[in-house]
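ENTRY TYPE: protein
WANTED: fold as tokens:
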Amino acid sequence: MATSPRTAPKNSPKKSAPQAKSAKAAKPSAQSGDIFDLIGKTENIEQAAMAMQAMAHPLRIKILCLLSSGEIAVGEIVEAVGTTQGNVSQHLGILKASGMITSRNEGKKTFYRIDDKRVIKIVAMTRDAFCSN
């Protein structure tokens, strides 16, 4: 007959000590509470990862820097970043698919703008971290 840990004889090894230790280690400290709150928000983490992945190219960062100033036509973006319209369009498509930017047509021109205010914050932080002297 098997004995449960509660009814185990006093001379048998306790199996609850390692469990108590790991439970104590998993408990967040008061200082790291915010970090553990974020970890519990899977949807927010997935959105952040998608945004970072969409931004993970130098040309897309340049495009977002331009768009952080306001709406711009594709031709102006091409001229500002110094590459082909096809290349710019490909990168605009990636940013648009991620939900970071949106477009509108006016006649034969297509204009793009940042559609998510959080992206403007990310671009500003990127400029501050990497572009300031």
Q: What stands out?
A: Helices lie at 16-26, 33-39, 42-55, 58-67, 74-81, 85-97, 117-130. The two ends are 74 Å apart (CA to CA).
